[in-house]
Amino acid sequence: MIKTISKTLFILFLILVFIVIYLSVYGVKTKKFNKEIINNISNINKNIDLYLSDVNYLLNPFELNINITTENPKIILASNKLEIKKIKTNISLKSLFANNLLINNLKISTNEIKINDLISLLRSFQNTPQLFILDNIIKDGTMAADIQLNFDSKNKIKKDYSIKGFIKKVKFNFLKQYEINNLEFAFDISSDKYLLSQIETELNNIKLTSSSINIQKKNDSFFIEGNFFNSSENLKIQDLKPVTGNFFDSTDIEKLKFTSKNNFSFNVNKKLKLDNIKLKTDIDLKQAVINAKNLELKDYLPNFTNKIILENHKIKINYNKDNLTIDGDGNIFLTNEPEKLSYKIKKNVQNLLFSTIVNIKNTSFNINFLNYKKKKKHKSTISINGNLKKNGTLKFESISLKEKKNKILFENLELDKNFKIVDVSHVDIDYKNDKNLLNKLSLKKKNSNFILEGEHFDATQLINNSISHDENKKSPIFHKFNTKIDIKIKKTYINDVDYINNLSGYLNFKNNKINNLKLSSIFPNNKKINLTINTNEVLEKETKLFTDYPKPFIKRYEFIKGFEDGYLNFNSVKKGNITNSILTISNFKIQEVPILAKLLSLASLQGIADILTGEGIRFTDLELQFSKQKNLTRIEEMYAIGPAVSILMDGYIENKKLISLRGTLVPATTINKSIASIPLLGKILVGDKTGEGIFGVSFKIKGPPKDLTTSVNPIKTLTPRFITRTLEKIKNN
Q1: Domain boundaries, the chain
Q2: What is the distance between the terminal CA atoms of the chain, rounded to a whole angstrom?
Q3: Contacts of 467 (CB under 8 A, 6+ apart)
Q4: Between 129 and 686, where is the model more confident?
């Protein structure tokens, strides 16, 4: 009996072992527990509907649980259906026999599904802020994943979950600035870590790749670090705007082609605020074409192509919090010839420091106000060091130009945000200009004033600019310039040939304009020149110029030839934009004045015309009264008297548009005869001299400056005004 019982128990044991082995190796398929599993999933989340077919149960005797696997189940969340490849979970035997199934873990392997559907599933288990953000910014894309979730005794997901898989063709917008298309990558996500690898995407139409991006949760923020690369292609500057911000707003970039390697890290909080940003970038700039036609550089670069082209630049960028450094060098094209450019930029919260070196060989350029011309194939170097402050002030620590023995240096040149000069501490120039004239000057600041001194200076261009200067069109180059400049220059050229010695005096500036001036000098022939400007209390500016050697100033007017001798006095008073002036020249001779010679010839006064174009004709006095307002010059009266001929004229000149003059021209013999006929007074003034011929001619000159029309009419009677002015001049003489 005992033997039979023992044998029976042994057989039962073997059967049990066989069943355990079978269930452990092959398991069993059944739908018997489907309802309980579905109820348990529903207890975890009531929004999930789970549809199961046959479920395979595999016993794990060592851990006293059952591994449950189902193929191709259906999960419906709201109206979204998830294509699931496999679901695996573990249920403890104790909970099974107690009719209270407890899920230990859940493994889900998906087919390729819509990423938004998966995010919705994950949010149904644990609705974190990160999942909420992802659900809102992702617009499209698919993914496949292996998800492993572990549960506690209350069916709550533990923090040791794991999600691995890949993502394809994701599209989303971030912060309304970053548009990402065709994003693909592999991912490995755990509770506090996110690893992305094999990344390819298009950021604002820029193709990017990355080997890895790591995201790690730290307290209430995330630390993100990684790298990305872009390949060489033509880019549009508007696509870079989310990265560059407003940096290129004022720059018209027509073409941009570059590759870059970038390593970055930053923190981002729950409100998506970035902090502790670090960036290291290596850029290989193949080409950048900048439309620069608005820069108006033709005056400085005669062969300027209206474009600035950068080619083959190697650039390194480092950004750490608020500190940015940029180092680069390469070719720059301002014309059709390449030059070498290198630069360094350092930016912090307050300032932007920069230094630039341009080595120029193939390009010619001009500095017109200095009469400096750099010729092609002459090597020169321009070095610039400066600081752009937060308030918009631009300060150049130094600007230097070197070409052979030529040197130009500016130190501590400060400009406001409108590029007006605020201050400068030192200027040194030592060069030969395009006329081979030496310029050697030094401007030094002393307290709030300046000292300008030197050996040589060619002031020709400065004088030309002053004569043609239109204050209504050209804005001042200074910002609230109020200072005094003491001047002492040994030799100053006033044209290509003539110069003055020992120029000395001062200039006082007030609100960018000369308020007071006093300059004196002497010519090599010991003739003098003096210039003064004074501004009175009612803001009338009076200018006085005197010289007993006016020839160098008169000969700059090409229509007057052979001017000799004389004294020149010029007085003008300016108030507001109206200037009234009187110019007097005494005891001078003119060899050739084409317009005057033409008038004399037309009036059949050929003898005097021959003198005017030959030996010359002498005048005892010339007086010109005129006023100027904007572009209109009115000649109230121009009177010249001489032994051979006298002229009285008035009219107006509209700058570069129209000349309109009229007047009277009379031979001196006729004047004497006319005045002599005046009883008593005539005899006292001119005696008994008489002459022959007509009294004179009236004339008109009118038309554009290069196409003047001249007409004359003989006159029999002189006007009272002509006789009165003649009497005044004769009496004064």
Answers
A1: 31-172, 587-732
A2: 172
A3: none
A4: 129
